[in-house]
């Protein structure tokens, strides 16, 4: 009976190890990796410790292998810091239009926003609570996304809003220069999901519009009254330079396209 219990416990531990490694392998690059890697290091270290205490099972290679997790996290941090430096030193390739360089998501640094060759503002992602950053990273989702966007004299705070009860829609309150001017929410339904369509609905100062894009493309359109008022897209297929063109350089349109890009792309 004791032997059977030991075999069962070993099999469950082995299954949990495989599950943890599978989570690590299949997780997407879109999110931040630092929390995931360090969490896996702690969990697998605990598993190996339990195996050693219960079964006196010690394998030097296992212990050596798990230190690849914090080592990889350190490498990702250093690479991301270098990428953040490139974002900060970005120089626009075009003399017209708005643009910013979106190269990494690991560090929540300020990304300069340009109009032509002149810096006109910046973009910064943030989380209102530290635990939100951890949860968003572990599940590799854009939950709790909030943005500070400065465009010339206008400062926008697009703040994630907790919905009442269960909702599949993400919601934000939009502040401009410290005053609430509107709100936004994703439009996730069967129709849009079947068409691989991304949609965010905006209601700003008694006006409404939507940002739309296909999941498989990088271009984002801003539509108001069935008329295209703005477009965000990459300079080319493998570029991380995001170019923006909107009617009358309206800052609310620029903010809307940036929110869509950060949340979906």
The Rg value, from CA coordinates, equals: 23 Å
Helix share bin: 25-40%
DSSP, total strands: 12
Helix and strand composition category: alpha+beta
Task: Encode the helix/strand succession as letters.
Answer: HHHHEEEHEEEEHEEEEEH
First-residue to last-residue Cα separation: 54 Å
Return residue spans where pLDDT drops below 50 for at least 5 consecutive residues. Answer: 22-31
Q: Helix segment count? A: 7
Biggest sheet architecture: 12 strands, antiparallel, barrel
Which of globular, elongated, flat, extended, rod-shaped describes the shape?
Answer: globular
Strand line-up in the sheet with most strands: 1-2-3-4-5-6-7-8-9-10-11-12
Note the beta-strand portion: 25-35%
In round numbers, the mean pLDDT is 83
Give descriptors for this structure:
about 260 residues, about 30% strand, 7 helices, 12 strands, about 40% helix, alpha+beta, 12-stranded antiparallel β-barrel
Secondary structure elements and their pairing?
Blueprint: H1 2-26, H2 34-55, H3 60-66, H4 68-88, E1 98-101, E2 111-115, E3 118-126, H5 130-138, E4 146-151, E5 154-161, E6 171-176, E7 179-186, H6 190-194, E8 197-204, E9 207-214, E10 220-224, E11 227-234, E12 241-246, H7 251-264
Explain this structure to me?
The protein has helices at residues 2-26, 34-55, 60-66, 68-88, 130-138, 190-194, 251-264, and strands at residues 98-101, 111-115, 118-126, 146-151, 154-161, 171-176, 179-186, 197-204, 207-214, 220-224, 227-234, 241-246. α1 (2-26) packs antiparallel against α2 (34-55) and α2 runs antiparallel to α4. It is built from seven helices and twelve strands. Residues 22-31 have low confidence and may be disordered. The chain starts with a helix and ends with a helix. The chain has a twelve-stranded antiparallel beta barrel with strand order 1-2-3-4-5-6-7-8-9-10-11-12. By secondary structure, it is an alpha+beta fold.
